[in-house]
């Protein structure tokens, strides 16, 4: 029932003033935990768009091992199902996705550089994801905040047809099965079918040109309405300055600029340990020096000569208990006051036979 309608009647768009009001529904926690993430990719090359994979990320509650084993075939390719601990994307999960995308694009885009345009989400700019993209031959192009609706091809022309197609397939299956909520596997297969018809089989070259990902400036109606016609800026063939990067990258997040521009930076040579032609003789490791304490023998003699025996330090007591007949160490480094002189030992007369 829509607000403002007569009781017992189903309202139409005309009864609501020509505009459908937003509907609110209480979703339980169990249903929220069954949500999945859909990772979509677009390419301005039609041949690459046919083979680039699309990903459905589900947690272990939604996607069982049997469902993952049954997934695949011509009915779902190139949409792939990933079973992870959580459906929220993190650094390891997104790195795995980028490696699979690079493996699928390698035979199609050989010899060309791949530019990966993503928004400035924290998981998109973490060091692990940037290093994985660099190893896969991809250069990450981050988009500034609040600019994805103007410069992101997925937001400009792809997500709306995808949602409309998925809604039509879902409602049709509800009528066929006479069920309000479909099984998770059936709903995911309908999402894969919608992605095949709305994303994989489409041509997105014009959408990329409208977003400005071409030699021409952005020309989408939404961009021109909000910001007006933008002249083509003069871009120098060099790495942007830090002042320019501060306008794009998030301010409250750490972004490794070295990892972001790793595909364009030359690896620095390893520093030479020694000049060529000169060799230094190898040195043996020096033995450890004794601790800076009094020697055991001197401490024992001083304690015996004093009228009141002084307490023996723990280091001297340990050395005396280990070997009382051992000669005193050669290195005697006094700490504090100088040791008192040792009393002379009385000499005994030699025994005569």
| Helical coverage, percent range | 25-40%
Strand order of the largest sheet: 1-2-3
Q: What is the H-and-E element order? A: HEHEHEHEHEHHHHHHHHH
Count of individual beta strands: 5
CATH class call of one domain: Alpha Beta
- Residue share in β-strands: 5-15%
Number of helical elements: 14
What's the quick description here?
The chain has a domain at 89-264: 2-Layer Sandwich (Nucleotidyltransferase, domain 5). Helix content is 36%, strand content 8%.
Account of the protein in words:
The chain is mainly α. It has helices spanning 29-32, 46-51, 65-70, 91-105, 127-135, 148-151, 153-177, 184-200, 205-210, 221-227, 242-246, 257-260, 296-305, 314-322, and strands spanning 37-39, 54-59, 79-84, 114-119, 138-143. The protein has a domain at 89-264: Nucleotidyltransferase, domain 5 (2-Layer Sandwich), CATH 3.30.420. The protein contains 14 helices and 5 strands. The protein starts with 28 loop residues before the first helix and ends in a 31-residue tail after the last helix.
Blueprint (SSEs and pairs):
Blueprint: H1 29-32, E1 37-39, H2 46-51, E2 54-59, H3 65-70, E3 79-84, H4 91-105, E4 114-119, H5 127-135, E5 138-143, H6 148-151, H7 153-177, H8 184-200, H9 205-210, H10 221-227, H11 242-246, H12 257-260, H13 296-305, H14 314-322
Parallel strand pairs: 2-3, 4-5
Antiparallel strand pairs: 1-2
Labels describing this entry:
single chain, three-stranded mixed β-sheet, 5 strands, Nucleotidyltransferase, domain 5, extended, 353 residues, two-stranded parallel sheet, 14 helices, disordered N terminus, mainly alpha
